[in-house]
Amino acid sequence: MALCKAGSLEVRVQFSAGPENRMKNTKKSHQRVKKRYNQSLLVKYFELGRFISFWKQDKKARKYGAKKLNLKRGGYVLNLACGPGFDFDYIIPSIGSKGKITAIDYSKEMLKLAKKRAGKNGWKNIKFIEGDAAKISYKNTFDAAMVTLGLTVIPNWKKALEKMVNSVKPNGRVVIIDGKLLNGPLKIFNFWVKFISCLAAAQSERDIITEAKKYLKNVEIKEFLFGGLFVLSGTK
Asked: In 17-117, which ranges are E strands?
């Protein structure tokens, strides 16, 4: 049992996820995330949690993000932290049946959902891999890479970002979709953002945008959900 805290709001949950400075080491962080995303309750109600967290704005963000990949028929795409495979809906129409997706996720339960989604839609051009995003070893392999709501969760997220960029061919496209804290007058609602992030084992305080700019050029950022959700696109 652990306590999720965000401002004056406190709720006890069955699984633990604290800020990075409370995590004793990377190994425990990995175990925590893997346990969270293999929880049958989370998997069962993932769609409901998605609606409560993003009010369907993540669908708009995914559609926009996939467009920014500038994909062509027959393209080869890395979908990091693929989760239940929601990104497939927006990638497959661009690459067609001759294109390929390598989908990687740390959670076997999420991969089961992704495989089910692929099977239901008849998508046979997706390779599924259960593994750590920070340990992938591709280099100049993919035409593009996309990660959605993954870098706020992956324990060694900076290494995962570096590996993802390295996996893309020179001048290939990279898209990152994730949540962040609100700015300006709306920051008074950050207690809610932090609470929702806590339930998902996510760290909304991570400065993903600044880190991504170290590796990508021609970076563009579009915000959704009053700035709580962003799409970052750039070229390797």
From this structure: 76-80, 100-105
